[in-house]
Amino acid sequence: MxxxxxxxTLADVARLAGVSVPAASRALNGGVRGKQSGSPELxxxxxxxxxTLGYAVSPAAQTIxxxxxxxxxxxxxxxxxxxxxxxxxxxxxxxxxxGVSVAVRTTRDDSAxxxxxxxxxxxxxxxxxxxxxxxxVDAGREASVREQLSVLSEHGAKVVVIGDNDLxxxxxxxxxxxxxxxxxxxxxxxxxxxxxxxxxxxxxxTALERVGGFxxxxxxxxxxxxxxxxxxxxxxxxxxYRAVDELRARLDEFDVxxxxxxxxxxxxxxxxxxxxxxxxxxxxxTGFDHVPMLGDVLPGFSTVEVPLEEFGGAALAxxxxxxxxxxxxxxxxxxxxxxxxxxxx
Length: 345
Hints:
This protein is of the alpha/beta class. The chain contains twelve helices and 15 strands. The protein has helices at 10-17, 21-28, 40-53, 82-98, 111-120, 139-154, 176-189, 205-219, 237-247, 262-274, 292-297, 308-320; strands at residues 63-64, 68-69, 71-76, 101-106, 128-132, 158-162, 171-174, 195-199, 230-232, 256-259, 284-286, 303-305, 328-331, 334-337, 340-341. The chain has a six-stranded parallel β-sheet with strand order 4-3-5-6-7-13. Strands 9-8-10-11 form a four-stranded parallel β-sheet, with helices on both faces. A three-stranded antiparallel β-sheet has the order 12-14-15.
């Protein structure tokens, strides 16, 4: 009776490849530490040795200095949201290329749950915590979040926040205000004059930046928006749907209903169709985010293309790359007017 062969070890791989064990480990980790990962020739040699021996890296066994796991906790508001789903996909792809794992957590847009999640993460010893939840103008809430993130940072987790905030940690941002301003100007230049705006909650920074920029852009073209024509609702399809009912008595006063997310735009369009309002010839509906599937369903749809899939890679760069003094990454958002990208003026 033959003995069962022992599984190959990292030392076996290093020996066959003719490199040290640490060098083999860095090569198989996918270049997580940039310059320390070795030359392409060395990585190829180590990977071939691993395949020959049937050696596979166990994510569960991977740790870094201090016994911390090689996972990144990615916190989003609502996993069903178009934007969150796209960011998660981008983070997963970026993490796979970097040789780390992602643990997705959702707050369900509940501020109390957000604090609970951050508290729970203390015991999970993640390499990093990346937050992509909506920041608010509620000073008490933001102070609580800052306190929890500070504790995680003090215990060794790197922290990155996606979106405008004053939390004091490395940040990945996009110019929501500037892009909204340019889209509004483009619509005005195309002859639109009568606007309603469907915004996110009036306490959320993202909503305030987008609406503020849009109103500024119209003002620069001599167009004012009455406060009663700005509807604040949740950033969701259902929020957009309900917003139309708030505007229903005045629908004949509008050329455009500008939704501050594509998800809300879908709800606006659905309700307008139920009410028999022609789209886009009767009322044009615009969005924000540029969810890919809407381009297939609604050719010529006006929106703002936010590089949602790039957020994960940018956040991981701040976490994993060699320090270069950066504590912020600013990504570009592109207004798209009737299916055509506007220039960056």
